[in-house]
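Name: Testis expressed 30
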Amino acid sequence: MCLPAVATDVHTAVILTHGAGGDMNFKHLVSLAHALASNGFLCFRFTCKGLHLGYKVKAYRAVWDFLKSLQRFTIKHIFVGGRSMGCRAAAALARQLSDESEDAVQGVICLSFPLHPPAQTDAHLQRSEDLRGLPEHLPVLCVSGTEDNMCDRVLFERMIKEMKAEVEVFWLKGGSHGLTVKGRFEDSVLDEVNLQVITWISKLSA
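Structure predicted for Testis expressed 30:
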């Protein structure tokens, strides 16, 4: 858990998890968590090694329940997100929770949404089912690289047009699935991505 310097006045929390490989200490997630805390948001990262989406969603639900139960904070807004498979789990949880309560989640953050395996674009409908199933009131931020071999841009933009939810997309020029850009320092890219996420959350939680 990353906390702002003044943790007594925290009203917004962000939950993040990793993709199919790695863990919660993936550099991009750590960088974003620290940036969020520096801007007054609580950020909770967790590791779930299971590759079964349903299992990952259950783990995500347990973390959401834990945050809701914390007595030391008055959390009014919770955003869920992750990178790659982690954001698929976030979208699935948000869809599940929105069926129970309209204000359970305030938004979904998708870093490198894995629309399909490399060179297997026919999987896009199944992988995007939860995103397309999100309700109108639940905003979504997608950050993807223009060179991501798991997210064909034409297919992704077509899928977004089918969504009921309001979606904001930031395309990282030259970005890979790992959101790295040839010829650019990694920290520079991370700062750019972090700024997009923080600006979007700040707008929605104001």
